[in-house]
Amino acid sequence: MEYFAFEEDFVEQNIRCIPMIVRFKMDAAGIKLKLSEWSKFTTNEKIQLAIMACTTKEEAGLYHDFLAGIVKSHTDHPATPLVIDHDPPWHPKEDIPEPVLERAKEHACNMDIEDWSKLTNLQRFALLKLCRTGHESKNFIKALQEFKLLP
Predict the structure, then answer these.
(1) In the beta sheet, which residues pair with residue 52?
(2) How far is the C-alpha of 75 from the C-alpha of 69, rounded, in Å?
């Protein structure tokens, strides 16, 4: 399973928060998941969602169906659909999204295109998600350090 070190405090405790790898796959599969729904899943279901393939269109469809089934079985209501962005802002390696640049500068990180392009899709996705309102700045800093963008 691919979890980031900055997520370890909530991954070890019954995976109480939705890890970035699952968030990444939910975006590809077109499902928005509430934390209240996630908390009803079994640990095995959470692990399955983290390790299940979701790279191709077919895999994303299977992931969607699996996740929708879990939501329905635990909540008795359908999963919330999410419009799939086929050109998400984290994807282009040659263009750092402005919120990432701004947040990085707040922490004395002078990220450039070369740094950004060396990151994986999941790392770029995580940095963009961690820039959003409501995310703790400490996790953004931890991610920059983990991704070797800050000492």
Answers:
(1) none
(2) 10
Model confidence, pTM: 0.90
Contact 21, 3 (CB under 8 A): yes
Question: Does residue 111 contact residue 140 with C-beta atoms inside 8 Å?
Answer: no
CA angle at residue 57 from 60 to 10, to 5 degrees? 25
On whether the CB atoms of residues 97 and 89 are closer than 8 A, the answer is: yes
Query: Which tokens is 6 given?
Result: 């900055």
pLDDT tens digits, 116-129: 999 999 999 999 99
Domain ranges for the chain, please list them: 5-81, 98-146
User: Whole-angstrom Cα distance, residue 55 to residue 76?
Assistant: 28
| Torsion sign, CA atoms 118, 126, 146, 139 | positive
Ramachandran angles phi, psi of 102, nearest 5°: -65, -45
Nearest CA to 6 out of 149, 147, 150, 139 is that of: 139
